Amino acid sequence: MADTIRTGIVSATVTHGGSGWGANAHVPALHLLPDYTLQAVCTAHEDTAQASKAKFDAGHAFHDIDAMAQHPEIDLVVVCVRVPGHKNLVMAGLHANKAVFCEWPLGATLAEAQEMATCAKARGTRLRFGHGIRGGLRSRRDAPQADRRDRALGR
Fold it and tell me: Which of 51, 41, 46 is nearest to 15 (CA)?
């Protein structure tokens, strides 16, 4: 077993117009955590994946989520893309039997979130979601929706 949790991050892109969360929040955090290693980056295109690998000193570059998730040197898949892309990326990690951390909200709908949670439970893999903004919810308006999702997921 590896000495650190070998992490593959989806959407840590250095190109202009990217979401920014992967590159500006998750990558710096991973570099500060002694128990984690940024092992791979995965973006939508080979050229941006290679550029991100070089910029963030990652071990591997991928432009195919399935290839990254199935790679033997990846222990944890981090998904930090826009919400409509969460389900397919999370499911790729779960189907590869990897632990998955996804930006909040987990799914675009409650049904998507439940499907991902059910898959993780059935496969015995870890699935966590979190918020990238200190202090959690952006506004009190978001609280009822978050509470419903948490209850549906048994939290």
Answer: 51
Q: Mind listing the domains of the chain with CATH numbers?
A: 5-152 (3.40.50.720)
> Would you give per-residue pLDDT tens digits along the chain (155 residues)?
468 999 999 987 776 655 577 777 788 888 899 999 999 999 999 998 999 999 999 999 999 999 999 999 999 999 988 899 999 999 999 999 999 999 889 999 999 999 999 999 999 999 998 875 555 444 444 444 544 444 554 44
Q: CB under 8 Å to 72, separation ≥6 — which residues?
A: none
- Give the SS3 label for residue 41: strand
Spell out a b/e string for 123-152, using b for 16 or more CB atoms within 10 Å of the CB, else e: eebebebeeeeeeeeeeeeeeeeeeebeee
Which of 22, 23, 8, 4 is closest to 60 using CA atoms?
Answer: 8
The single residue listed with the structure tokens 């609280």 is 143
